[in-house]
From TrEMBL:
Cited Pfam families: Hydrolase_4 (PF12146)
Protein name stated in the entry: 3-oxoadipate enol-lactonase
Enzyme Commission number: 3.1.1.24
Keywords, in A-Z order: Hydrolase
Residues annotated as domain Serine aminopeptidase S33: 21-230
UniProt lineage: Bacteria, Pseudomonadati, Pseudomonadota, Alphaproteobacteria, Hyphomicrobiales
GO molecular function, one term: 3-oxoadipate enol-lactonase activity
The UniProt record lists the keyword Cytoplasm: no
Keyword hit for DNA-binding: no
Length: 263
């Protein structure tokens, strides 16, 4: 693991693997680079794999005030510059990480070869925004523990808790989130409107829906795919936190997609 200062913020990151191609992994809201623990090693056998704690998450610098997707995309560019990674990279992201990856592809099209996203959180519907903002206000006031049961029920379906140790480890890590940073990232999502930029994406895109995702059910994921010219859509048996819940299925989807792009 490395701790570096990039784009004016301290970020925790890890670059592993080797090869001519680079894959950047962007975790979900409330997650950290550990979300990719069972995915990253599979790709590091043939690619360079860069994963990191987004600003405000994990052990990266916490955030206050306003945050934008532009800043999140610029953090990735700064990390690539720090490690001397030139040329185009592929990105994979889950939930808000998917939105960051897609935004990077529009903001840095010359640096993007392909994007794979799981249940991408590209915004919050107008009719759900007030309730979402009310919920995050409670989180800021009472801490993330006040939202843990609801978040796990909707994001980590009971059907996926066969490996109870994996679930408990994820749940406990989620409790470590900084409430104010979590709320800042959520407000960024609430302010996002990516519809126009999705229609301008020019690189190959794979959108993955989770059949047991109650946070962003498959129809929402599929609607993102339909908004992107030429995007592919697949659905796998997983929930919202798919890199943790179904690393094998997710890795296979991403690997098959990237191999077709590389070819």
């Amino acid at each position: 693991m490395d701790f570096i200062e990039a784009n004016g913020v301290g970020l925790r990151c890890e670059l592993s693997g080797s090869g001519d191609h680079t894959l950047v992994l962007v975790h979900e809201m409330g997650g950290s680079l550990e979300s990719w623990d069972d995915v990253a090693p599979r790709f590091a056998k043939s690619r360079r794999v860069l994963r990191y704690d987004t600003r405000g998450a994990g052990l990266s610098q916490k955030v206050r005030g306003e945050l934008t997707l532009d800043t999140m995309a610029d953090d990735i560019a700064a990390l690539l510059d720090h490690f001397g990674i030139a040329g185009k990279v592929a990105l994979a992201g889950v939930a808000v990480g998917g939105a960051i990856a897609l935004h990077f592809a529009t903001r840095y099209k010359e640096r993007t070869s392909a994007v794979a996203v799981g249940s991408p959180a590209t915004g919050i519907a107008a009719e759900r925004r007030a309730a979402a903002l009310e919920r995050l206000a409670r989180i800021e006031a009472a801490g993330v523990a006040s939202a843990i049961e609801d978040s796990m029920l909707n994001g980590y379906a009971p059907e996926l808790r066969g490996d109870i140790a994996r679930f408990e480890r994820f749940r406990t890590r989620w409790l470590g989130n900084d409430p104010s940073s979590y709320a800042t990232i959520w407000r960024m999502l609430a302010a996002a409107d990516m519809q126009d930029e999705l229609a301008r994406l020019a690189c190959p895109v794979l959108v993955i829906g989770g059949s047991l995702d109650r946070v962003r059910p498959p129809p929402l994921a599929e609607s993102v795919a339909k908004a992107i010219p030429g995007a592919r859509y697949v659905e796998i048996r997983t929930g919202h936190y798919m890199a943790v819940q179904a690393p094998d299925l997710l890795s296979d989807c991403i690997d098959e997609f990237l191999r077709s792009v590389d070819a």
